[in-house]
Amino acid sequence: MTDVWRGNGIGAVGVKARVEQQLGRASHSPLGVWFRDIDRVLLLLALILIAVGLVAVAAASPASAERYSDSTRQVPAMYYFWRQLGWVGMSIPVLLGVSMLPVNVARRMALLGSLAFLLCLAAVPLVGVDANGARRWIGYGFAQFQPSEFLKPCFIVTTAWILSFRAQDEKLPVMPITAALTGLIVFLLMLQPDFGQTIVFGSVWLILLLVAGISPRMMGALGALGIGGVVSAYMFYGTARARIDSFLFGDAAAGAADTYQTDMAHAVLTAGGITGRGPGAGTVKFRLPEAHTDYIYAVVGEEFGLIACAIITLLFMAIIVRVMVKLLEEDDAFRVLAAAGLVSQFGVQAMINMAVNTGLAPSKGMTLPFISYGGSSMIALSLGMGLLLAFTRRNPYLARTSYGTGWSG
Fold it and tell me: In the chain, which end has fewer C-beta atoms inside a 10 angstrom radius, N or C?
């Protein structure tokens, strides 16, 4: 009977043969080509982060459920975990599907996405939904989404595409064009208000300019302009002033919000010590606002320890280093800029969230990529990671030709 099964390809040998046929070096099927070209290490790191995120949301869900329960509505303890599991189920196909796209198709999709989500962002002040004192969402009920989350990866690819023309003609006005686009987005974000996303967009734009090779003098001028922007925001933008005063002076600042969130995040983060109190054993987390989103890093610290927080940090660093090392061998200006921008957005957002959780930065309402709860965040990050995987795909068995011409046997 075993021989019959093997002969029909039903046994382990047959399954292995079929897998090798579909994914082996000689396979010309779309799945085989994708599996051969994709950066499997980068894909694995992303999937590990998503899995870690599910565990973290499961740990934070009871605290958030209790906080949002009242006499009229009792939220189940694992409510946010089950919802996040659903978002992950929707996001992974997005990640894998986008990673299979040819570079030119992925670029066109991002360009169209930039236009669509920029229009949505412009509509937020008019028809957006208020939440926690800010208007950042659009839509109704289950269909609500945050346009700025989806705009980030599309904006990065669009900016990379514009800046890549500088490699062909340095006289093209690519910097003013991208500056105008970034300025428009920053203006729309400040209307919401969303100071955290403003910092992400501005930081990634500066990084892309640096990768594109602008002069040190121009970079210094832009740095001074950025400092001037922060000072102006402090002087004329009430939300930014309140958060900066709260962070620097606490209750001593007249009119500033208190530091309860950042103080409590630090208390939760350190409550578990090096090894943590154990899954489900955290107690301080129940006093933490937004435990499942903005401050999930602190919840990980209480239940799984500072070692777990360090491992998460190393995972983010591994993704950044992996991409940057691969780009050292890349000749296509667009691919270099797009991949560098996408991984920079990933790293900047993680760094801001961790800085807030550890008390090194004022609260900004920034999620931790792939770890925090959220549908818009999870799907948009999967879109960005899919684009990153698409732009870093390369066939290891073929040799590079001259600039911009792809691969040659």
Answer: N
Cα separation values, 304 from 273, 277, 289, 310, 379, Å:
9, 6, 19, 11, 26
Give the amino acid at 270: T
Phi and psi for 26 in degrees, rounded to 5? -85, -5
Q: Residue 200 CB: number of other CB atoms within 10 A?
A: 20
Q: Are 262 and 356 in contact (CB under 8 A)?
A: yes
Q: In sequence order, which residues have a C-beta less than 8 Å from that of residue 257 and are 6 or more positions away? A: 242, 243, 245, 246
Q: Provide DSSP, 8-44.
A: TT-SHHHHHHHHHHHHSTT--SHHHHHHHHS-HHHHH
Q: Which residue has the tokens 């740095």?
A: 223
The DSSP secondary structure of 258-319, one letter per residue, reads PSHHHHHHHHHHHHTTTT-S-TT---GGGG-TTTTTTTHHHHHHHHHHHHHHHHHHHHHHHH
Taking only the tens place, the pLDDT of each residue in 337-350 is 999 999 999 999 99
- Residues across the chain: 409
Query: In whole angstroms, what is the distance from residue 336 CA to residue 67 CA?
Result: 44
For residue range 158-214, list pLDDT tens digits in order. Answer: 999 999 998 787 788 888 999 999 999 999 998 887 888 888 999 999 999 989 887
